[in-house]
Design goal:
globular, mainly alpha
């Protein structure tokens, strides 16, 4: 089972904020569970990558709004609880986020387990 997860996991060549992060955050706002997103993206069921990637997007949105991370910590920790608030902010800043994000590139000839 681990080999299949490793084989399907996206091997990113690019580092940093990418459109991949925005896509994961949009899946969260659609109400998908972290385990389901992990399965879709090829990560292990308990991987923390979905949370890390979505938090990067949320922190960028908060900075665009001029809001303090400390004051909105509950909304970052529980994004599904405030999903309508996040959707509104994402729609407002999606153009800027897309401009700042890089398009992810993937390794094509990577064997599983490497």
């Amino acid at each position: 089972m681990k080999e299949s997860a490793t084989f399907h996991r996206p091997f990113l060549r690019t580092k940093g904020f990418s459109t991949f992060h925005i896509h994961i955050f949009e899946l969260i706002l659609l109400g998908k569970a972290n385990r389901e997103i992990n399965r879709l993206m090829g990560y292990t069921p308990k991987s923390h990558m979905v949370v890390d990637h979505s938090r990067q997007v949320m922190n960028k949105i908060l900075s665009y709004e001029g809001l303090c991370k400390r004051d909105y910590k509950d909304r970052v920790v529980y994004p599904r609880k405030y999903q309508f608030w996040w959707k509104k902010l994402l729609e407002k800043h999606k153009g800027t986020l897309i401009q700042k994000a890089i398009i992810p590139e993937y390794y094509e000839d990577v064997a599983p387990g490497i």
